[in-house]
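Entry:
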Amino acid sequence: MTYCVGLMVEDGLAMIADTRTNAGVDNISSYRKLHVTEVAGERVLAVATAGNLSVTQTAMTMVREGIRMPGSEETETLYTAPTLFRAAQLIGHAIRTVREQIAPSMEADNLMVDASVLLGGQIGEGRVGLYLIYSQGNFIECQPDTPYLQIGEFKYGKPILDRALRTNTPLPEAVKLGLISFDSTLRSNVSVGLPIDMIVIRKDALHGSHRRLEVDDTYFRDLGARWSQAMAEAHRAMPSPPWLEK
């Protein structure tokens, strides 16, 4: 399994994804789940994937090599998509096509073919956007009321984002909250693991800042330790249940 999150605030966008793939307790590997398409000054797109690895890898290869959408004779890729919405359509079509091709044989062996994708970024003068694309190829767009989207094992990292992330949160603070949500997930779910890939895309910059956090990353380790200490101090500072004190 995996955990991926996209955080979209007024200043821009951050996307974070782990690299662990779990095919059983004796078959755990690392694969990059965050894929970036970037032309400086023109476009920067980040795609984070979760679910069946063969489905997502095949779909991403199709999008890179080119797709002909129904009713069109033109071959399109993430480098040629005129808008972020069109890029989401291309990825959705690729995922649906792959699942339709391989689903019968995999389901016959009781194998899951579900996959989901986060697509975020900016193309030209278009606005920064973030989409969640489902296995069926349909998708939703991130909105200011809930300025984040998650896929994979997201339940452990969701509470901190619900409580603290707002659309006017400064981008560095949003990244901090995203990493805290990862720290919480890593502590509670062994199917999510380091290293972590991250890209930060500032509004209208049309390029991304990339970073990989390894097991020995000083900042991430310190952030997790400080968060644990802050949580311990917070619960000790709260009053005990009054009916237990009588």
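Residues 6 and 15 are 4 Å apart (CA to CA).
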